[in-house]
Amino acid sequence: MTGVRPDINAQSRDADLYARAERILRDNDRGGYTVPTKGLYPFQWNWDSCLTALGQRHFDEARAWTEIETLLAHQWADGMVPHIVFHEIDEGYFPGPGVWQCGGATPTSGITQPPVMGFVLQRLYAEARDQAAARTRALALVPKADAWHHWFYAHRDPRGSGLVAILHPWESGRDNSVDWDAALMRVPADGVAPYRRRDTEHVDAAERPTQAEYDRYLWLVQHFRGLGWNSAELHDASPFRVVDPGFNAILVRSDSALAELAEAIGLGDIAARARARVSRARAAFPALWNEDAGQYVCLDRVTGEQIDSRSIGGLLPAFAGLGDMDRLADTIAARRGHVAFGVPSHDPADVRFEKRRYWRGPVWLIVNQMLADGLRRHGRVEAADAIVADSMALIRRSGFAEYYDPTDGGALGGPHFTWTAAMVMELLVGKRG
Length: 433
Ligand code: DGY
Description:
- The protein is about 45% helix and about 5% strand.
- The chain is mostly helical.
């Protein structure tokens, strides 16, 4: 133990949950980086790692900073921070480095993931017990996070709309959301080299994306690989270009946090750049609002049209306090009202909702945390408390799963899951969400 024990009654049920969460973070620690779960995800994932640091800080602050330093040690020269760093050889995961072919002494994937890093860095710094150490580490990391954010607007918003596009469903982190169905089906599936999926050897296929989706995920990887992973070319060359309100909201929240942190440590230029990006993005957000849905929706940048899909991505702007928070809180409450445990990742009233299949219905604790955090920050305390109550009920019922069935609270996906444990620590110790 290197940190300070949380202020929770040692005999309580919470103390037991905290101890279990800490054990998961330690079990999944590979020394410098943490795997999301053994077997299914045996490498370092970008947004998993950043959110993991939020948990680690409660028992070992220095280790939390290391998690992000390790990730950023593999940032590309152009600023991109890859979604996977393949620290070790592990044939139990597909697609591995041989498919990506991105090079590097430690290979990485060639796409990115939701940029929660700025938000996490600011929290690590603002609540650090060792302020001097935090300042030193933040001074080294903030310029790198700024370079990543700059990369987004340079390469994923080449016409300067103020909003960035994802080019692969894996970039959203919500791999098989209904949001991508129409755009993904425009991606060809022919010419994909024969492959063997490994995810369904670890987890029931009914809880994972379909084969038709995987074929297209792989087609996109092959396509980008054929373009030499040149960021300047990929946007216009991709048949899949979607503006996701969830992804953009995370970027806005992280850029606001980065501005605050940069200001606090004397990096005024970075703070000004981050604020300018936030202003442009905020001004562009109304284009994603859908009045009938009572939420934001994705924009298909290929067709220029809004996508008819009411997913959790369109509620995540609450994390950044974007738009009409009362409307968002009402829609979130309505979604919770359809199920036993909220917040479902897709509208249960939609025929495309699937309660067990990954991002097409199940509840994810990390999303619950972001929603609750944003709602509380913007004064919707009751709405935040309701989400926290659902989160704790899920944990108590089914433990530290990757995701949960919103109808009966059953555990789904990988077990012993790192970011779920990190979020539980935030709930118990950080009093967050
Ligand atoms: C997977 O392999 O399921 C991941 O979500 C891709 O990053």
